[in-house]
Amino acid sequence: MADLATLVSGIAAEMQAMPHRGAVADYIPELAKVSADHFGLVVIDADGQEHSAGDADTRFSIQSVSKLFALVEALNRDPDAVWRRVGREPSGSAFNSIVQLEAEGGRPRNPFINAGALAVTDLLTSDDDPRAGVGAILRLVRSLAGDDSIATDGAVAYSEAATGHRNAALAHFMKAHGVVRGSVEACLSTYFHQCAIAMSCRQLARAGRFLAHGGIDPASGRTITSPERTRRINALMLTCGHYDASGEFAFRVGLPAKSGVGGGILAIAPGRASIAVWSPGLSPQGNSLLGTLALERLAHAMGWSVFNPDA
Ligand code: GLN
């Protein structure tokens, strides 16, 4: 098996030299300002050793990776409420698709497409206290990462709110079907602010460790969620975490992972490692192009795959 430290720096060097880096998301104007030249990688192994390379400590917009933490929070509060509103099937559609939601009566396929995430966020949103939802998600990621400085980037949240008409359409449609129950405005505001949370690869990899270790955060010994729920969240990440490229990701990498249009991916090698990678250039499906390639290289070299009986 490859030496992890050497591997991580080798992969970062290879990715930093890649000429084709994908296109940075520009439908959220603030994200278009980020250079495609960034690359960061952090792998935290089961002993807590952190192996990092590149822009490992530069904060970026976690975007849809936040859907994972919102889901954990909502499931810990009331799992039945979550599964009454959203399904657990891969969508095979773009993350912001509208047509499937209408065809299926306003019930989103899964919690990781935008519609499903908005329905989950609605569960965390209180009309009386518009900051409660994002506050709960921030509390969770801050405690997991052990860093109270993690915050929402106000400029990104504002930029998405100003241009987030598709998300508004999805939320209004679900309100019409009773899937979103509270105020649509409060739900959207919470969603835009959770997506605008800025974290580094190191913070993200630390925040993901409980998913590699049966729901227990090894840094604090705290139980974040049950072993069974952890397995199920990992199953959802594997089947739905990359939208209409989830099958391709499972084929190439074979690990549960959640991506975001900021170019970040959090991947979990159960029992082995929590991995965060960041490269802002995206594939046409909105997943980090080099982030995916880096994870493919890492998983292959380490033999890490949920389909590998020896891993
Ligand atoms: N905030 C983004 C949106 O709603 C998140 C999408 C993503 O990261 N795939 O469009």
Task: Produce the secondary structure layout.
Elements lengths: L3 H13 L6 E2 L15 E6 L4 E5 L5 E2 L4 H12 L1 H7 L13 H5 L10 H11 L7 H14 L5 E2 L1 H10 L1 H12 L7 H12 L1 E3 L1 H7 L1 H4 L3 E2 L4 E2 L3 H14 L5 H7 L4 E3 L4 E6 L3 E6 L2 E2 L6 H14 L9
Antiparallel strand pairs: 1-12, 2-3, 2-11, 4-6, 5-6, 7-8, 9-10, 10-11
Bound molecules: glutamine (GLN).
The site of glutamine has 11 residues, from loops.
Short description:
The protein has 311 residues and is of the alpha+beta class.
Shape: globular
CATH class of the largest domain: Alpha Beta
- What oligomeric state do the depicted chains represent? single chain
Spatial extent as radius of gyration:
18 Å
Order of helices and strands: HEEEEHHHHHEHHHEHHEEHHEEEEH
Average pLDDT metric: 97
Any guess at the CATH architecture of the largest domain? 3-Layer(aba) Sandwich
SS-derived structural category: alpha+beta
Number of domains: 2
Q: Enumerate how many helices there are, as a single number.
A: 14
Separation, N- and C-terminal Cα atoms: 11 Å
Going by CATH, the homologous superfamily of the largest domain would be DD-peptidase/beta-lactamase superfamily
Uncertain segments are none
The largest pleated sheet is described as: 5 strands, antiparallel
Strands, count: 12
Main sheet: strand order:
3-2-11-10-9
